């Protein structure tokens, strides 16, 4: 009798394990993976991914995305947004718990922005509660509030001052106002994004807030507090690069010289470093980790177009930060970041490695280890080990 009881206990445990295993989407149909992998264009891949999500669930679809190997022409970040939108339709805000690690940025942005677009300001208390309960701690909270910024900007008809006021109200002293900063970043990203949600309200707002006379507008306006201005500058280059052209006679980084103080100039140059990384490697933030020395050399060359020591250093710092922490994963991309510092000129090299050490230890987590110091040139291992 005892043996039978043990058998049934084991059987029940197995069934529970299997149900959980299946619900998590780890039993992925090979045919679904293959359909995604043979998609020849972004449009085809998006259509296939959203079809899978509608038929088998957004949770399942994210595991298919994770298992698939895409060609270089497929933007995985955009796929994550598309599947995340379907996931929100199916599960509402609860869908944010299905955002797998590889797609957590695009997925969480889509879910939160969807909630804002659907329910407007009434959903904000719910969003705050969801964001604050993130199991991932501060990284998850940050991504969630970033998504809030996307949704708020659309819901407020691309009204910058109104959006900024709400983002500011979300900040807490306990988290050093990271909620406000991330909300601001998401709002600005929504404003300059190529994938506009509401063209009718966006076009006139674009003309209003991006004054050609002051290309750094609105980052220096009174409605954007000083502690949020770096996030504003971070997204300005997306429009400035288009306006000036990367190889144009009027170099886009020249706009940074209009900054009234060194801090603003540094913010601006760093932002171009980020933009050069994304345009030099890929427009897909998730592919930042997959680069090579030729592309790194291109980033270094573009940063030298700043024609100033300060500008070049700040530009490289922006590129370094993007390479080290880009792609939505907690694990830092150390190898490529070190390669970038080795590729710069002698004048910038020391500052690059010192900024790399600072940036690496600035984000404590399970992937941060003293072993990182061993990957650096000998002369930087001792100062690195003091962190």
Question: Care to describe what's here?
Answer:
This protein is mostly helical. The chain folds into two domains: 122 residues, no CATH class; 152 residues. It contains 19 helices and no strands. Helix 5 packs across helix 6, helix 6 runs parallel beside helix 8 and helix 9 packs antiparallel against helix 10. About 5% of the residues have low confidence.
Main attributes of the structure:
single chain, 387 residues, mainly alpha, 2 domains, globular
Brief overview:
This protein has 19 helices and no strands. It has 387 residues and is mainly alpha-helical.
The helix fraction, in percent, is 55-70%
Proportion in β-strands: under 5%
Radius of gyration: 22 Å
Overall mean pLDDT score?
A: 80
Number of domain modules: 2
Sequence stretches where pLDDT stays below 50 over 5 or more residues: 6-25
Terminal Cα separation, in Å? 61 Å
Give a count of the beta strands, DSSP E runs of length 2 or more: 0
Secondary-structure-based class equals mainly alpha
What spatial form do the alpha-carbon principal axes imply?
globular
Largest sheet: none
Number of helical segments? 19
Order of H and E elements: HHHHHHHHHHHHHHHHHHH
